[in-house]
């Protein structure tokens, strides 16, 4: 790796970064064990979910904690043109988590930090690592505390830092806002390699910059996520529409209902093709395992597109099931 680093610098960068800088960079970056060779375009850090770009980094680094992230960023900041990108689970589609011949930090390697805290006002929060996958956060919150974050993404193999750097949207956002609105505190490593705690009241500019900031205002190493009691059960419903106007009218009605007692806990809509193509047609919208989508139920007027509202109502074992039935019927 050292040879690779020097070779790169000699070929491309001798003017802006003299040799003594290179060796100090190599030392300070702690090449032992934490930097991994980049083998060109096939390397994990040179690719993302979108598959449209391939940019080979100089190094793919696996930091173990916030101090380690800060050390790497501080050293990179000493160079005039070495860029750094945090990489969560690489589910961007446009190369956002890549650094062309720069340093890519694998945030999933951060220590698995997890702690649930109760605030003075009785609210519960989970302190989690910026590199934690949401599916692990959910599992820990539910299995150890019977709690769950309030706002989600549909797909959970995404990191906390990755979605907080975007927004994090799913069927609960109509009630609680995106995931970025359900975080009360962050620990962030800035571009100078300094570590700050920030919130609405402490270093607020950094807090609001980092949330939705695509990693450009700092690297999120820890987040305090608002929790609520996890439901015991969920009534899950999918409604298929043939008319776009009916679909949007019902969606608007459901998301603007104010009374939580009388509405759904999850509302999301999507469109799909009226065909039997498994990729984007009717088979791509699974129903209950014992139910199949029967296209003969579709009216003759149905066009080439169909629309689906996905709804869920939470309840507890102790709740009278007729209450759930009543809300659904209404
Ligand atoms: C199959 C799939 C399903 C999806 N479903 C949803 C969904 O339901 N709802 C939704 O809102 N989005 C969804 N997305 C989009 C997804 O939320 C974003 O692409 C998100 O950025 C991916 O998270 P990641 O951990 O893979 O981040 P990456 O793609 O690795 O990084 C995303 C951006 O965040 C930056 N970043 C990563 N970690 C940090 C950190 N710790 N601190 C600061 N910056 C950081 C990166 O530099 C990059 O700019 C989906 C994407 C895919 C591919």
TrEMBL record:
<keyword id="KW-0560">Oxidoreductase</keyword>
<dbReference type="InterPro" id="IPR016170">
    <property type="entry name" value="Cytok_DH_C_sf"/>
</dbReference>
<dbReference type="InterPro" id="IPR016164">
    <property type="entry name" value="FAD-linked_Oxase-like_C"/>
</dbReference>
<dbReference type="Pfam" id="PF01565">
    <property type="entry name" value="FAD_binding_4"/>
</dbReference>
<dbReference type="InterPro" id="IPR016169">
    <property type="entry name" value="FAD-bd_PCMH_sub2"/>
</dbReference>
<dbReference type="InterPro" id="IPR016167">
    <property type="entry name" value="FAD-bd_PCMH_sub1"/>
</dbReference>
<keyword id="KW-0274">FAD</keyword>
<dbReference type="InterPro" id="IPR006094">
    <property type="entry name" value="Oxid_FAD_bind_N"/>
</dbReference>
<feature type="domain" description="FAD-binding PCMH-type">
    <location>
        <begin position="53"/>
        <end position="230"/>
    </location>
</feature>
<comment type="similarity">
    <text>Belongs to the oxygen-dependent FAD-linked oxidoreductase family.</text>
</comment>
<dbReference type="Pfam" id="PF09265">
    <property type="entry name" value="Cytokin-bind"/>
</dbReference>
<keyword id="KW-0285">Flavoprotein</keyword>
<dbReference type="InterPro" id="IPR016166">
    <property type="entry name" value="FAD-bd_PCMH"/>
</dbReference>
<protein>
    <recommendedName>
        <fullName>cytokinin dehydrogenase</fullName>
        <ecNumber>1.5.99.12</ecNumber>
    </recommendedName>
</protein>
<dbReference type="InterPro" id="IPR050432">
    <property type="entry name" value="FAD-linked_Oxidoreductases_BP"/>
</dbReference>
<dbReference type="GO" id="GO:0071949">
    <property type="term" value="F:FAD binding"/>
</dbReference>
<dbReference type="InterPro" id="IPR015345">
    <property type="entry name" value="Cytokinin_DH_FAD/cytokin-bd"/>
</dbReference>
<dbReference type="GO" id="GO:0019139">
    <property type="term" value="F:cytokinin dehydrogenase activity"/>
</dbReference>
<dbReference type="InterPro" id="IPR036318">
    <property type="entry name" value="FAD-bd_PCMH-like_sf"/>
</dbReference>
<dbReference type="GO" id="GO:0009690">
    <property type="term" value="P:cytokinin metabolic process"/>
</dbReference>
